């Protein structure tokens, strides 16, 4: 079989793969929000993640506690010694996900379709990988809040991050998300730390109930993501409500009129995305199978990426079964049993509010 690598001809290389990543990180509402931050430490570890063999491995992020309150009064007595303040904390574990996509087309398809598969792929990859990253971030949020709803254990208190105002029947201004329920939820869950919340991820039904989806403000464009999930493309105008940036996504829980909205503090969703470049397997490459299609040829584009997502304050715990060397799936990120809380809830800066937006029929 005649197979030709054409990376030298097309200019597909590591630099272009990195440019795709940089473009991807500016593509969707969550990635553009102040709740999201890229983590250089994660990125550095991701670039080295091919080292050390094939066993599933973790990346580590320090989670140091704030300095304890109380300072020493300075004196002029040389025999008085200051009492040192011990730095405490640990580390959060992050497991990388390795992903690939390979758009392909026959030579005849290009001829009659009037397009170039390489040009098309180059124009689409940044949006594609942005969607994959957002899918993982939202799945991780679903997972950590599902974990918080489980029975209290040594690491967390059940529902300590979740305020449920949904009740048993819809009542406007009481069970739905509105200014009053939002402020009360922030006060009860976050206390004096409530001002740390900067944005909310809400279902489109919740957003419509808030009255912020006018024709001039937004057109929702929902695109399929991995494992049947969904992500929304960048909104033309940033949406705000009660001082919070509003991100609309139908990947958040919504069942029979009951919605869960996520409220996020600044830089509470950390992530890294790097080209997955290996010897003889470049992160971005084009191959041509000259013999395929009875000599008409098939052009194959390959894009390989390493991703890591980290809701601050949590460690991912790989499941005993079903976990592969390619790293966590969106479904595994969304599973409560695969998470562990690493430190006190108010320091984490994440919370959820469960509301009833209409009476189920």
Question: What is shown here, in short?
Answer:
The protein is of the alpha+beta class.
Estimated radius of gyration = 24 Å
| SS-derived structural category | alpha+beta
What is the makeup of the main sheet?
7 strands, mixed
User: Judging from the principal axes of the Cα atoms, what is the shape?
Assistant: globular
Pick out the low-confidence regions. 6-11, 51-56, 214-226, 231-236
Tell me the β content: 25-35%
The counted number of beta strands is: 20
Q: Share of helix among residues?
A: 25-40%
Residue-averaged pLDDT: 83
Secondary-structure blueprint of this entry?
Layout: E1 3-5, H1 7-10, H2 14-24, H3 29-32, E2 36-38, H4 40-47, E3 59-64, E4 89-94, E5 97-101, E6 104-106, H5 107-113, H6 117-148, E7 162-164, H7 179-190, E8 197-202, H8 204-210, E9 222-224, E10 230-232, E11 239-241, E12 244-248, E13 254-255, E14 258-265, E15 269-275, E16 284-289, E17 298-311, E18 314-316, H9 330-333, E19 339-341, H10 345-348, E20 350-356
